[in-house]
Design brief:
The chain has helices at 28-38, 41-59, 65-89, 91-96, 112-133, 136-156, 163-172, 174-181, 188-211, 213-218, 234-249, 252-256, 261-283, 287-316. The chain is mostly helical and 317 residues long. The protein folds into 2 domains: 28-184, Tetracycline Repressor, domain 2 (Orthogonal Bundle); 187-317. Helix 7 packs across helix 9. The longest helix is centred in the last third of the chain and has 30 residues, at 287-316.
Length: 317
């Protein structure tokens, strides 16, 4: 993730219990950038794209800009809350990792109380907005997403690599949130979107965990199975299994009539590319092949969702 702002006090080598960075006065523009970083904007934007896809697929020809914007606004605030509260809870771990040591909290550009306030206020306003302007079911599932991410997944990373599986559940819920925000029920259509997002995450995050394994180990996070340290290729093999499962599950929206043959063809091509990158990583675990999985994942999902949405409206017309 990107690091914003000038260089600050280095606390990455300090003992976890002693990480208390001094908060420095900054220019307004810099502080706004730091507040924006709390939301993990690239992740939040991708999540909101999947919300929009779920919304328009469920609403069909009856979708409206007002309904979509209310859903995006309420769920977007939940994304801000999850990012801010996650960084508050992991501020000491972040200070130990090179990839996160320059985030606003461990770098001392924002105080813990500021970040906690942003997270709590965003969560409260998010749920209230969704209840008021969207519907109760969307608010309930959004609340569940926050609880799973913050109260279960975040602390579990210190104890078990199963946290990755647990974390994939809230990670796969945004398109379901969009679906129910449009008035859809928790049916097979919502489940198909959940399944695609759930499986897509594993090759992506396994590659990240492998690339950042030393950082995670320094922070005491168990992001890879214990056996992976002694069995080269195991991380890549798991990625292959999930990519293969994703290739199969990606056909489900076609079977449900959410999209047609054009989507199915795109899903096969994109899924095969993702699978090929995972196989390459399995065959030779290296920085290059792990990054190849990341790049393939970031091409796969947006194009798959775009193809699904386009083909859905093609069928409606």
């Amino acid at each position: 993730m990107s690091s914003l702002g000038p260089a600050t006090t280095d606390v990455s080598a300090a003992p976890v219990g002693s990480v208390r960075p001094q908060v420095h006065a900054k220019a307004p523009a810099t502080r706004l950038a730091d507040y924006a970083e709390l939301a993990k904007p690239r992740i939040a934007v991708m999540a909101l794209v999947t919300v929009a896809v779920g919304y328009v697929l469920a609403a069909g020809e009856n979708w409206s800009w007002a309904g979509l914007l209310h859903a995006l606004g309420g769920i977007g605030l939940a994304a801000i809350a999850s990012g801010a509260l996650n960084q508050y809870l992991e501020r000491q771990s972040d200070a130990r990792m090179t990839r996160t040591e320059n985030r606003p909290l461990p770098a001392g550009r924002l105080s813990g109380n500021e970040v906690l306030a942003v997270g709590i206020i965003s969560a409260i306003v998010s749920i209230a907005w969704l209840v008021w302007q969207v519907n109760i079911l969307t608010a309930v599932i959004t609340s569940l997403t926050l609880v799973l991410y913050l109260a279960i997944y975040t602390p579990m990373k210190k104890h078990s690599s199963l946290a990755t599986t647990v974390g994939a559940v809230p990670g796969a819920l945004p398109p379901v949130l969009g679906w129910v925000a449009a008035g859809g029920s928790l049916d097979s259509g919502a489940l198909s979107l959940f399944a695609i997002l759930f499986l897509w995450q594993f090759p992506h995050f396994l590659a990240i965990a492998w690339l950042c394994r030393d950082d995670y180990e320094a922070a005491g996070m168990k992001m890879l199975p214990r056996a992976a340290a002694n069995r080269p290729g195991l991380t890549g093999l798991m990625g292959v299994v999930y990519a293969l499962a994703l290739l199969v599950v990606s056909a489900w929206p076609r079977q449900l009539g959410l999209a047609g043959d054009a989507y199915l063809a795109a899903a096969i091509v994109l899924g095969a590319g993702y699978l090929a990158a995972a196989i390459r990583f399995w065959w030779s675990e290296s920085t290059s092949t792990a990054r190849g999985v990341l790049y393939a994942s970031l091409v796969h999902l947006p194009l798959l969702l775009a193809a699904m949405t386009w083909d859905h409206f093609r069928l409606l017309n």
